[in-house]
């Protein structure tokens, strides 16, 4: 019999010239499971893929960020620093990459500059290589200190343009921001499209404009979510325009509110002259690994699984819509989602057209929920008031003066226009002192940082840390067996149930217990 | 408060010139539910979308084909001709389109030319406008009669290139086939990518080569499945190369083994100068309609929901893999799928590299299963033997002479190289006579055609037709209630459950069984 047929594509008869190698950042270990399964994946379920990821030929491996850190200590009883060191050890040949919220670090408030510096030093010492630094408002003053800190420790500083659309957002504006970021000393730039809004033509135009306006040798990375179904085309156009690296997730943890599949990117480029040099067999093994792991997290999976193009008008990142639905349901208003989605663009305009990404997406989204449930701006959330008063930084558009006045009246705070962190005194020593007494704290700077970032959750975590990780994934076979048993009435023993049973006219006291 | 913000994309500041309008064929009514939910959607669940589909601005609406016809009479007790006439009535402004298997019509064997002509006449009379005519082997002799018949009734004849890849398939070969099809009198051509193998660069090259080689004014349609995650990019490249019409499915019945979402196509083209002129609000309503309908067919949904790039080597259309899995499971060999997938390219090579599409996909796939389970070619299926002997037509490559000899020995049939239908005597009159006696047959040519196409199923259908359609969709609320009832022990008869019952202080051992 014939051997396995080798089947080249038709274009192989006249191969295109090799034009350029495109780098790939693999998202499976961070943003993929954050977007698809509420960041619940345990380190234990990732280590088995690390050898193949390390050898596959990625430009970098994204594996750490605010949500993974938060989920580690809140749900998994896992020390995020152990996770980082484990990745470092298991992937010695890879650039490890993280997402850093500028002056917010991994938390939800601004930190003083000394804390920002300490965080960068410690994460670099524990193995981090590439820092993608962003600010939700695209206010470069909020990323300045973090970028300087990354440069000081000799690591890769990547400046970020959070992509959004509004009457005020223009290609020229993004190029100006790109200039500012490069002047801060960035090693590369990222176009971050967290809501899958970056259509192909704007992707091409934006990458080209940055290359032409800031420099052809400026490294441009492109990060897109897949929610709207259109962004693999955007990656193609970005590559044609000169993008150096694009972000994807291995297919078994891709699509929906997640990302475009790594393997599809590879196939997309066949015959184009662009290559990734990724190792197909390694990719297949990584895919198989996560195909086995994924069913363990079914109960955490996003309800959004298909393509959703209506977010082109609401601009809300896929992951946020389910949050809003749950907020509305808690208020008994689960049927008012469409009203809220229509309100979001209005709130965003009133706030000066911020991009919608953590934390601005939550702040604008929650205010939109309040507006729908209680009437427009009858109640301002504390965070929305701070946003209106400049405590998160500058927005591109003017903030509605009437609502700024309401925020001022409600909070008794004055509007500011300085860099928010300029108002903060150094706080590291105070944080060290406040952490020292915590039950289970080991005196390390890492524990201080955990406490600084998540003051509500850290004490409980540190106290329980010795119990070791809790894997919240569930074996699908076990889950199925449980369901089957329930259906067959053959469940576990239960507590006795008490009945009063009248039999042939006589009442009996009966206790029934499954045994 | 501000009105809803109008948010143009950044590129709107320097709009691209309008270059060209691209037509769209909507697949929701045929291939979408065929690929996603085993063709089970009832007419009743489609009529509500027809007004919006009719007004949305599509180039055509695909709504009929072999599998829909088959499912109508086999599962839904629905007359496929009534379905066609209903669509005609509900979508008076639309081109209705069907998929026709050349000389096989909607069945699995070759029919004599008089039957082919009668089928085309009757379907045109019942409302069909556009006939996409294909042959699984790309043997143009097998589509000649059907194309001539479509021309005779004054309808739109579309010739089809079934896209596949092999060492023998070249752009030049496809252009030659395109020439042949245009010489048969086709009004347009379709590149049919049933397995999602058409990568972006070959898509561009193929469309461009056809336009340059056959004529810039030759209408080229492109049909891609979405299974490999890469084909929306292929549609972009095909459009850039000059494609006139592309096929998509409304987002709520898209992706997986189905197709790229219509709305994503619209968004993809924003700012490019290519437009679709589809009506966004109509699309939203069509989407909402099928989002409501889809959960009714959960139990028929394809197990493949994500992206699958391994089919680039096996070339098996997404829908077929689940068929194979079920064949293997029936033989207690559910664990041997990977071996079968590796065997398929070998069987395909032995058969002269046919494209894999109905019926060649089933024939090659089943032989691959037999080879794995019983050893290579120990048993030939009757269909595979016929394929090897030329009874389905010509293949591009030479068929393995050793296996041809085995087929000859097994079947006592001689190899042929004429057009298979040349060996068939006229059969219409015989079919009329054979149908006349069937219980429930109404004497119409339509009933004769139903009997001709599905002789095993038609008698039962005709006898039961008066009972009216059976909608096999299930209300999701009803399904959930049923499950809940089962879990609460309120289901069908079960095995006995053992309790300890304490009655007036005395413990009893009790077994309870639902009867």
Automatic annotation (TrEMBL), chains A, B:
Residues 22-284 form the Pyruvate carboxyltransferase domain. GO terms for cellular component: cytoplasm. One of its GO terms (molecular function) is methylmalonyl-CoA carboxytransferase activity. InterPro entries: Aldolase_TIM (IPR013785), Carboxylase_cons_dom (IPR003379), PCB-like (IPR055268), PYR_CT (IPR000891). CDD domains: DRE_TIM_PC_TC_5S. The keyword Cytoplasm does not apply. Keywords: Transferase. Its EC number is 2.1.3.1. It is an enzyme of class 2 (transferase). GO terms for biological process: gluconeogenesis. It holds the Pfam family HMGL-like. This is Methylmalonyl-CoA carboxytransferase subunit 5S. It comes from Nocardioides bruguierae.
């Amino acid at each position: 019999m014939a051997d396995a047929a080798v089947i080249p594509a038709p274009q192989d008869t006249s191969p295109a010239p090799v034009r350029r190698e495109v780098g790939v950042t693999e998202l499976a270990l961070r943003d993929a499971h954050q977007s698809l399964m509420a960041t619940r994946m345990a380190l234990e379920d990732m280590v088995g893929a690390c050898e193949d990821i390390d050898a596959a030929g990625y430009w970098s491996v994204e594996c750490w960020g605010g949500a993974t850190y938060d989920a580690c200590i809140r749900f998994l009883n896992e020390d995020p620093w152990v996770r980082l060191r484990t990745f470092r050890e298991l992937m010695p040949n890879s650039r490890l990459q993280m997402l850093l919220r500028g002056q917010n670090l991994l938390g939800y408030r601004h930190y003083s500059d000394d804390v920002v510096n300490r965080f960068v030093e410690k994460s670099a010492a524990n193995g981090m290589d590439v820092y993608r630094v962003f600010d939700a408002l695209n206010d470069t003053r909020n990323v300045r200190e973090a970028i300087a800190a990354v440069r000081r420790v000799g690591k890769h500083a990547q400046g970020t343009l959070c992509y959004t659309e509004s009457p005020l957002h223009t290609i020229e504006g993004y190029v100006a921001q790109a200039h500012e970021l490069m002047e801060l000393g960035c090693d590369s730039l990222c176009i971050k499209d967290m809501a899958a809004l970056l259509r192909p033509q704007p992707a091409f135009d934006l990458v080209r404009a940055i290359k032409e306006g800031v420099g052809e040798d400026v490294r441009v990375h492109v990060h897109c979510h897949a929610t709207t179904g259109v962004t693999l085309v955007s990656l193609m156009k970005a590559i044609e325009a000169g993008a150096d690296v694009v972000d994807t997730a291995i297919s078994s943890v891709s699509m929906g509110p997640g990302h475009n599949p790594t393997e599809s990117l590879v196939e997309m480029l066949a015959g184009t002259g662009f290559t990734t040099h990724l190792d197909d067999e390694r990719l297949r093994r990584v895919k198989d690994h996560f195909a086995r792991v994924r069913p363990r997290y079914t109960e955490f999976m996003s309800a959004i699984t298909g393509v959703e193009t209506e977010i082109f008008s609401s601009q809300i990142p896929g992951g946020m819509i389910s949050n809003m639905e749950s907020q509305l349901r808690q208020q008994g208003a689960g049927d008012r989602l469409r009203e809220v989605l229509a309100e979001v663009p209005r709130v965003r305009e009133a706030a000066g057209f911020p991009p919608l990404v953590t934390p601005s997406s939550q702040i604008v989204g929650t205010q939109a929920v309040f507006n729908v449930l209680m009437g427009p701006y009858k109640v301002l959330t504390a965070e929305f008031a701070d946003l209106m008063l400049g405590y998160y930084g500058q927005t591109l558009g003017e903030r509605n003066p009437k609502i700024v006045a309401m925020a001022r009246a409600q909070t008794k705070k004055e509007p500011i226009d300085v860099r928010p962190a300029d108002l903060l005194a150094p706080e590291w020593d105070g944080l060290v002192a406040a952490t020292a007494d915590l039950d289970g704290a080991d005196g390390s700077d890492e524990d201080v940082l955990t406490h600084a970032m998540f003051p509500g959750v850290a004490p409980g975590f540190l106290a329980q840390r010795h119990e070791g990780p809790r894997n919240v994934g569930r074996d699908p076979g076990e889950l199925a067996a449980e369901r089957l048993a329930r259906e067959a009435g053959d469940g576990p023993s239960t507590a006795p149930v008490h009945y009063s049973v009248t039999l042939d006219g006589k009442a009996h006291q009966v206790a029934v217990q499954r045994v």
